[in-house]
Amino acid sequence: MKSATTLATPASAATADRQRQAFILLRTVFTAAPIIFGLDKFTNILTDWTMYLAPVATSVIPLPAQSFMYIVGVVEIVAGVAVAVRPRFGSLLVAAWLLGIIINLLVLGSFFDVALRDFGLLVGALALNRLSPRQDPLASSAARRSAAAPPAECGTGRRRPARAGGGPPGRRRVLPAGEPSTAPRSLFPQPVKLATPDVPAGLAPLTQRNRA
Prior knowledge:
Layout: H1 10-40, H2 55-60, H3 65-85, H4 87-108, H5 112-131, H6 137-148, H7 204-211
Helix pairs in contact: 1-3, 1-5, 3-4, 4-5
């Protein structure tokens, strides 16, 4: 009868290893990039981020463009941390944020090349969501290792059989008065020795003569 458990083949193991490598690469990129871009919203070292903001955004939310970018920076930092901690949820958050950036650039009517680049990042974020496990991979791997570990054994792991009548091995149990013995009895009865009566010293020769 064939077993229902499917054994892992070298091909499936190689496929799982490649998927794990792709997950680690995407998780690293979508953790570092949003945090770096979010921090740069406060410094404008990489570029002047306010030129990517559509005027309709400041008309909906009456804030200066730079103050609006501070809010954007905080959201991007939170998204990067979410990918690091909960990649399955954080990847969806990054994908939704990239979709908002694409809509903003389309409304602005320029920087279409940046919009196309962000669309590629959006697809990568969705791919990370598909590769992300439901649980933290570090915690699940630790749980699998603890479940697969054999139980600890004392000494050689063998137990000596108990002696008849109970008690620790290697010692004879002393039965209390009145308790029947549980030791096995012999099938053949033992010979009974009759006690010889005491004979006075003067009658000893007569006794020996009668026996003769």
